[in-house]
Design a protein that fits this description.
mainly alpha; two-stranded antiparallel ribbon; 12 helices
Length: about 240
């Protein structure tokens, strides 16, 4: 059984500090590792006393941290506020909110997506193994079957591109791409074009990766993404 880390002590905050400053303090301690994933925060009463803040401000701060995926509030006798690792779902929801409320367009998303997906091509070519190639081919088979029976959706194309990112075997790349999932899907839905040609391009990309041909793989992916850019009206 692992030894429990010693409790973190907090210095009092001036009374003028509000919930957003409590959020900033706790977030900084989580990011620095002083508050590790799984750590239980002191009780509300103890935190309020240590930080010199009201219970109302503390609860508001904890709700913000919970909505950001940094804290989990558990009920019951063994409950409390626990530090958690934010998931890509939280990041993706934030990006989607930006897309829908802050003026980001499908063209903006497509440009960012092109920079990322073209940038990882050399890594994919160098690192993709037989399992990656086999699973990418299976996704193409599934997409073609769906085109035949009328069940194809843009999400099937997105699954292919996410699996390409996974072929880098770099968890940071996978996390960034996955957090962008909802925004990419929205741009694909606006483009409304990923049909037979899209699947054919996916297969050609796989062939280039299997042949370790970086130039061809980059060209195929660039042409593939350019069609999406044209469909959503993106131009430099």
């Amino acid at each position: 059984m692992s030894k429990e880390a010693p409790p973190v002590a907090f210095d009092p905050l001036p009374s003028a500090r509000t919930a957003d400053r409590i959020v900033r303090l706790l977030r900084d301690q989580i990011r620095s590792g002083e508050l590790s994933v799984g750590a239980r925060l002191p009780s509300e009463r103890d935190l309020c006393a240590q930080l010199n803040v009201s219970r109302l401000s503390l609860r508001e701060a904890l709700r913000v941290l919970e909505s950001n995926g940094l804290v989990e509030i558990r009920m019951g006798s063994r409950g409390g506020a626990f530090v958690t690792a934010p998931s890509t779902q939280h990041a993706g929801e934030g990006i989607t909110d930006l897309l829908t409320t802050a003026g980001l367009s499908a063209a903006d998303v497509t440009q960012a997506r092109s920079i990322l997906e073209l940038g990882i091509v050399p890594v994919v070519v160098a690192c993709a193994d037989e399992t990656d190639l086999r699973e990418l081919q299976t996704l193409c088979d599934d997409a073609e079957a769906a085109r035949t029976d009328g069940t194809y959706t843009p999400a099937m194309s997105l699954d292919f591109h996410l699996r390409v990112a996974a072929a880098t075997h770099n968890p940071a790349i996978v996390m960034v791409m996955d957090s962008f999932r909802d925004a990419i899907l929205m741009s694909m839905q606006e483009a409304q074009h990923e049909g037979t040609q899209g699947v054919a391009e996916h297969r050609e990309f796989i062939e280039a990766v299997q042949a370790k041909d970086i130039d061809r793989a980059h060209r195929v992916m660039a042409d593939h993404l350019r069609r999406t850019a044209d469909a959503v009206g993106y131009s430099c």
